[in-house]
Design brief:
The chain has 344 residues and is an alpha+beta fold. The chain folds into 3 domains: 83 residues, Arc Repressor Mutant, subunit A, CATH 1.10.10; 128 residues, Periplasmic binding protein-like II (D-Maltodextrin-Binding Protein, domain 2, 3-Layer(aba) Sandwich); 95 residues, D-Maltodextrin-Binding Protein, domain 2 (3-Layer(aba) Sandwich), CATH 3.40.190.290. Strand 9 and strand 10 form a beta hairpin. Helix 1 packs across helix 2, helix 1 crosses helix 4 and helix 2 crosses helix 3. The protein is rod-shaped and about 105 Å long. The two termini are 50 Å apart.
Length: 344
């Protein structure tokens, strides 16, 4: 239990007086008048209820109690200096633990392909991965970096967060050939009314309307029969392959199925998601070097990873205009609660 009656600075003053072998030398070294040093040490002795120093006109010596306290004060100063050195070291190079939140649909890909290389580059960094689509309070849950996908617009309510666009992932409306043969051709949005929807709902939202973007980015909402709803894209992909309905999937998840013919693209001129992938963190100011290194790594490497699993011309990196827009969102508000974006 901390002794609140003791002024901790007085312990440092006591240590300096001993090491400088007198009040005069210690006062000169600290820039403190000799009289003030003497008063502080007298008060320290009174509070401890024992004499620490034997004073005479010629010399200063330690009592047994003073000798014991001196040893502890030396150790206390060493620990404090070590703590300061460690904090300063951490502020200069990436080290320590970073808590990273990934959407379920991307977590396995990033954890297996990117994070091992990141950790090899930064051996003093440790990463805790939280695979979830739910909204997070970054401050309360001590999350450093969040990766999320944006639904039908490059817009999140992130006034309290720093948001940087990583890339744009192509999304496709797909179904199995057998299911398409069953319901007949789909040549327009109106034809979707006869189909069953496999609905992606990363945040368990009540709204189940399918929103499609045309070539100009205009959103069109449609009401469809929802056959299955899930926050896991892998579940919906398998359901589509099993002839259960239509679903929207990112290119990196369905490229192989489209190439093999297990799935076919429906209304290729339309997109069920804008596919903007963003990285979020509480504040640029004071961002630990380890978290900064991870953000920079993801912004560079994630587009390359997704491009290798998507259509060659489909993935687009963040444009200079997007980066300029990101720069306008860099101020942090008092709260730091994540918005509820669609997870890619």
């Amino acid at each position: 239990m901390i002794n609140v009656s003791i002024e901790w600075n007085d312990l440092l003053l006591f240590l300096q007086v001993v090491e400088h072998k007198g009040f005069t030398s210690a006062g000169e070294a600290l820039g403190i008048p000799k009289s003030r040093l003497s008063r502080r040490l007298t008060l320290l002795e009174e509070r401890l209820g024992t004499r620490l120093l034997q004073r005479s006109s010629r010399r200063l010596s330690l009592t047994d109690a003073g000798q014991a306290l001196y040893g502890h004060c030396q150790q206390m100063l060493k620990e404090a200096e070590a703590g300061i050195a460690e904090v300063q070291q951490r502020s200069r190079r990436p080290m320590g633990r970073v808590r990273l939140s990934l959407p379920v649909g991307l977590s396995e890909m990033i954890a297996s392909s990117l994070l091992p290389r990141f950790l090899q580059c930064y051996p003093e960094v440790q990463v805790t991965v939280l695979a979830t689509n739910r909204s997070l309070d970054l401050i309360a849950e001590q999350v450093d970096v969040v990766v999320r996908g944006v639904g039908t617009a490059l817009r999140l309510d992130t006034s309290s967060l720093v948001q940087a666009c990583v890339c744009t992932v192509p999304w496709n409306l797909v179904c199995s050939p057998a299911y398409l043969a069953k319901i007949g051709p789909i040549d327009s949005l109106g034809d979707l009314e006869k189909a069953d929807l496999l609905f992606y709902s990363p945040n368990d939202e009540g709204d189940t309307e399918l929103r499609m973007l045309d070539e100009w980015g205009v959103v069109h909402a449609l009401s469809m029969t929802v056959r299955m709803q899930s926050d896991n894209l892998g579940v919906l992909r398998q359901a589509a392959r099993n002839d259960l309905g239509l679903c929207g999937l990112p290119g990196y998840l369905c490229a192989d199925d489209l190439a093999s013919g297990q799935l076919v693209s429906v209304l290729p001129g339309w997109r069920p998601m804008a596919g903007h992938l963003v990285v979020l963190f509480p504040s640029r100011r004071g961002l630990p070097p380890a978290a900064r290194a991870l953000v920079d790594f993801l912004k560079t490497e994630l587009p390359l990873l997704l491009a290798s699993d998507s259509e060659p011309s489909g993935l687009r990196p963040a444009s200079p205009g997007t980066e300029a827009a990101d720069a306008l969102a860099m101020s942090a508000a008092p709260s730091a609660t994540e918005a509820r974006p669609k997870a890619a």
